[in-house]
Amino acid sequence: MDRPLVITEDHDLLDDLLRVAAAAGAELDVAHAPTHARPYWNRAPLVVVGGDMADTLAATGPPPRDRVLLVTRAPGDPDAWRRCVAVGAQTVLELPSAERRLVEEFADAVEPVSRAGPVVCVAGGRGGAGASVLAASLALTASRRRLRTLLVDADPLGGGLDLLLGQEEAKGARWPDLVAREGRINAAALQAALPTFAELTLLSFGRGEVETIPAEAMRSVLEAGMRGFDLVVVDLPRHCDHAAAQALARAAATLLVVTADVRGVLAAAQALARLREHTTEIRAVVRSGVLDDDVVTSSLRLPSAGGLPDQPRLTAALNRGDPPPLGGRTPLGRFCASFLNSLPEAER
Hints:
By secondary structure, this protein is of the alpha/beta class. 37% of the residues lie in helices and 18% in strands. A hairpin with a 2-residue loop joins β8 (196-197) and β9 (200-203). The mean pLDDT is 91.
């Protein structure tokens, strides 16, 4: 595999670039002169030109290409953009302020997007509406279609999706192991660290003290999921915190599970107001009750993603530690299959 190319004679700058590349999990090819860079110029997925070498490189007339960056350790250099244009770079990055951007650039070069999976969020209109069960069921159904699926538990007070799936003892990282993460996470490393069952990877909460998920940690996990998985399903808390807002901002669709009774609709209306602060693609999933489905959706002014009739023996299966039963004739199975078919990005 070709490596990013760095062209510089500045040893201090090179030390910085090697450190930043290591943070991104990237190895570099280094050229100290334009002639040394020539064999790598067209092959390298990314070229980083030190400010010290830009004019010398430009004088050799390198062929135009994309993904060329000019990097300097001299913030505010008025001549930097002239050198950027001369060498055919796309932008100027000033260190140390642009280190995070440079980490992202190196990481993209060695871990290109391979999946581009959509994010689907699931929220409950009120407590006990069944949002967690639906989120787990969607993820299970997708994984059984051989879609690489990441199921993210974003509800610290939900009891844990690992328990709902009957995988409480599964080995692997939980949120407490990731809450300090900032910046980019390698998608393959994330999958290797988390409990994984065939095509389903799970990020859940551990037992013990509840920790709030920092927005930066959620952002890093979701972006890794979108690069490395076919589908990302997020089980949201009823209180829309900063981490939930990160998921909603990236959601291709958000399902609001509403119980078909007066209290359920009123509670869902309050939840909906918070969801609409962060996303627009919201659909109602109506649990059977005393109100007709169309009355519920019209009251909330939401399109319907479908209804969910009561499913006999679902509660008993979950209490035994079994995952939700999703046979083709079960209401949950039919709903999940239909909804996934409506997501063109996740079809297989």
